[in-house]
Amino acid sequence: MAIDIKNLNHNQLNDLIGRAQQRQEELAKDKLSKLRDKVVALITAEGFTVDDVFGTGRKAARRVSKVKPKYRNPADPSQTWTGRGKRPRWFNAALSAGKKEKDLLIA
After folding, report:
1. Is 33 helix (H, G, I), strand (E, B) or coil?
2. Can you tell me the distance from the alpha carbon of 35 to that of 29, in angstroms, rounded to the nearest whole number?
3. Pair 67, 106: CB distance under 8 Å
4. What is the reported pLDDT for 54?
5. How distant, in Å, are the alpha carbons of 3, 16, 29, 30, 89 from that of 22?
6. Which intervals hold domain DNA-binding protein H-NS-like C-terminal (predicted)?
7. Which residues pair with 71 in a beta bridge?
8. Helix (H) or strand (E) holding 80
9. What is the separation of C-alpha 19 from the centre of its chain, rounded to a whole number of angstroms?
10. Which helix (H) or strand (E) holds 15?
11. Collapsed DSSP state (helix, strand, coil) of residue 44
């Protein structure tokens, strides 16, 4: 079925292009659906499940272990710092006041 595009005006040509692209998407979805069905059938025929072959699709949660505090604020012992990340204000203030890092270490 040949379409004579030379006789189409701008709007008709845009409409034809839009319908052709929509049809391409439909064909791709159909093809993907058929392929998915074939893969699932093959997996099932071999005695497995999709989750056995491909997993659940979720990544394992990363375990974050708690780190013991390394430094303590002498003015307020409830304030501690592990030594990781940005320095707390109290730590910088203590250093500015003349204390050394080893003075703030937890014994």
Report:
1. helix
2. 10
3. no
4. 85
5. 17, 10, 11, 12, 60
6. 59-106
7. 81, 105
8. strand 80-81
9. 35
10. helix 10-45
11. helix
In the chain, where are the structural domains located? 8-54, 71-104
Q: List the chain residues with pLDDT less than 50.
A: none
Q: How much is the pLDDT for 63?
A: 82
Short-list 72, 80, 63, CA closest to 99: 72
- Euclidean distance between the first and final Cα of the chain, in Å? 87
Beta carbons of 80 and 67 less than 8 angstroms apart: no
- The Cα–Cα gap between 102 and 44 comes to 64
Q: Does residue 33 come out as left (phi exceeding 0), alpha (psi in the -120 to 50 range) or beta?
A: alpha
What single-letter amino acid sits at 89?
A: R
Q: Six-digit token pair at 22? A: 């929509």
Evaluate if pTM is beyond 0.70: no
